[in-house]
Amino acid sequence: xxxxxSYRNVNTSIxxxxxxxxxxxxxxxxxxxxxxxxxxxxNVAGLTKAxxxxxxxxxxxxxxxxxxxxPQALLTPPTPPAGAMTAPTPPGLAPGxxxxxxxxxxxxxxxxxxxxxxxxxxxxxxxxDKEKTSIFPIDLPLEPGDYKLxxxxxxxxxxxxxFTVKAGEKNVITVK
Length: 176
Prior knowledge:
By secondary structure, this protein is mostly beta strands. The protein contains one helix and ten strands, in the order βββαβββββββ. The protein has one domain. Strand 8 and strand 9 (about 155-165) form a beta hairpin.
């Protein structure tokens, strides 16, 4: 379950081309100086409206911008053709989306995190160093594939590393 956070100046843009692409862009600020920047385009070919809504709700919830989980009925994938082999969909996720947990036990103070991949960009930063707090852990809904992570602390690039999200596996990325 995502940690609920109180954001202000939330700007959300969700666009569905009605065919195969659903894009979600979010920009938000928090009173303590943390900034959230999320931009992702999902391949939604073959998904029903209810499944697309479940995906939108999951993204918003995982970013701490929604207080109600989607109804269970929205999470049911379409029935595959007879004889088709399909991987099980984790509860709470649209088909083809995995939850990736980013952890960093030693990350505090002023920090910035960027994750990028094909059709995907995510950025989150915290500029307040009044308290030794952390933006971690972060749970992100990501499609399986290759991504690149960059992490700065106190304005200094600490790590820049590729990672792969694998379907049906526990995806935990330790930042540093």
